[in-house]
Amino acid sequence: MSSDKQRESFIVDNEDLNEDLQELKAKLAEFNIFEAIGVVRQEIRHSNFLAFLLDPSQNHRLDDIFLKQFLKQVLLETDNPTDPINHADIDITDLRDAEVSREKHYIDILIHSRQNKLVCVIENKIHSGERPNQLKKYEETINRHYKDCQAIFIYLNPEGSPPSETNWRIYDYYKVVEIIDSICINDKSTLGADIYTLMTHYSTLIRRHIVSDSEIAELCRKIYFKHKQALDLIIEHRPDLQSQIDENIRELLYQGIDSREIFITYKAKGHTDFCLKHWKTSESKDKKLLKYSIYFKFANQEKPFSDGLGIIMQIRPNGNQKIREAIFNLAKENPKIFKGAKKTKLTPEHTTIYKSKAILTKTDYEDGDIKEIMKKIQYFWEDFLKDDFVDIDQIISTNIEMILNDN
Questions:
Q1: DSSP 35
Q2: Per DSSP, what are the bridge partners of residue 49?
Q3: For 309, which of 120, 151, 321, 360 could close a Cys bridge (C-beta 3.0–4.6 Å)?
């Protein structure tokens, strides 16, 4: 289909699409506090709230009610006569001493009751899958640190998809909603208006966005199949988080550094290369500009920060080999400034002579809050300009003639 026909088809389809979207908008019009603060499909924040409800020591006034209901339902769904613990045991157990931790031993939610010698591991998956051997490693960790405890391993996800390890019990978010709704009905007077509102809003959030058999999900599927061409075109051109971060980084670079003008030498999705215009020699040697030999790079989910973001400095593969060697030797002689250069070898490829600490981690990308992400980048950038950048610039600038004259 030509671009003109595609545009015409989109406009015609869009008139009908607008009516369907209005119906969806009406269903989503009710205020939801979790949507307002950006908690939709972010595993970290879902884990935070579930840990809050599960923790008897928190100020939700539930004591161990939610914890016991949750464990009872999990065990009821997966009871086995050979299990060392079952749902009936939980019903008569006092779990108010339970400690609920987030990311302890890298586990999403870890529950430990010393009094009952019970430990529970919850691996929470909203939109991501398992990493290789992830669940097996968690089992080994629990067996090592909690040898005297009975262990319950729970794999929580929207659809109740099976885990890779047989010791893990499957549980889905729709059942979590049922527990929340049941407590809101039966324990409303205990909860108080604030916690009751919070729990009902969370239940609504899950029904709207997480479970697939909700009314909202069904309407979304109907709209998509009816207007597939138009929606596919919109999805194709939507901005993703990595691209948003790239764009904001480039805005920082365009601002320059005081009177020292930065220029971008290359940009593509996931990385932005930049250099300084004053890194050059005299006019008589304009063919040997240092700026073509070395450069900085914001690596955005690219090597060596494949799960995050950081700044590296590299020697380019092309160009005068003696200049490359002189730059490399200078970096090796100053390992406190050129972090990581001491363990590096000069290769025919791009050679990294500086690597910053990580600005963003995998957790930041999963959280997906662009405003918070840009605050982190801004703070790091300001510190970088005052610290490592100044040291690197000083050494390079004072040794330009030496580097170029060595060849």
A1: H
A2: none
A3: 360
